[in-house]
Amino acid sequence: MNFQEYSSYFKNILLKPATKHQPPYDNPDYLNYTKLNWSRMNRWFKTGKLSNDIVEIVKKIDQPQHWIIITEPWCGDAAHNIPFIEMIASENPLITISYELRDAAPYRIEQYLTNGTQSIPKLVIKNQQGKDLATWGPRPENCQKMYAELLQEKASFEIIKTEIQNWYNLDKGKELQKELEDVLAATRNYKFNFG
């Protein structure tokens, strides 16, 4: 799927009558997360700003790259990160993006586990030949650290959800962009190092 198709798939979940939902959206909690995520994602598309540094780095990519985003509409981290990834990629016509659902074929997430889990979103960057150049995800490092600490403290799901939401609202995509600066700079050097 491209972003428009993913967006349509996402929106159709929200428009469907509650009685017609398939799992996991037949669970009211999942459906509510998905509604919140639609709002969050669209808010970042309206208010999110790219740094000059990330724009400069992405514009320097001079070989075609294909970015695969593995995600699901119910994923809160995806709602906060996908808009920035999409905006970054749009700065360079050599970058194409496709979206895959974690819980549907081809189940690519199995190749990109995080600490043994199917955590999303996961960004996979490939070159023209389909070779992996880099991966990123499921969330910025400091957010991931906070998440791990909250799990260790046995915080409730409600507390974890709120803390992560607050982290993203304060960060405004800055840490993701800094991390992707390093990832993208490395992909530009990849062909010299390994190609």
Structural descriptors:
single chain; 195 residues; alpha+beta; 7 helices; 52% helix; globular; disordered C terminus
Describe the structure.
It is a single chain. This protein is of the alpha+beta class and 195 residues long. The chain is 52% helix and 13% strand. The chain has seven helices and four strands. It has helices at residues 3-15, 28-47, 52-59, 76-89, 141-152, 157-171, 174-193; strands at 65-71, 95-101, 122-127, 132-136. A four-stranded mixed sheet has the order 2-1-3-4, covered by helices on one side. β1 (65-71), α4 and β2 (95-101) form a beta-alpha-beta unit. The protein is globular and about 50 Å long. The two termini are 29 Å apart.
Which SSEs are present, and which pair or pack?
Elements: H1 3-15, H2 28-47, H3 52-59, E1 65-71, H4 76-89, E2 95-101, E3 122-127, E4 132-136, H5 141-152, H6 157-171, H7 174-193
Distance between the termini: 29 Å
Number of helical elements: 7
Q: Given the helix and strand composition, which structural class is it?
A: alpha+beta
The biggest sheet amounts to: 4 strands, mixed
Short summary of the structure?
Helix content is 52%, strand content 13%.
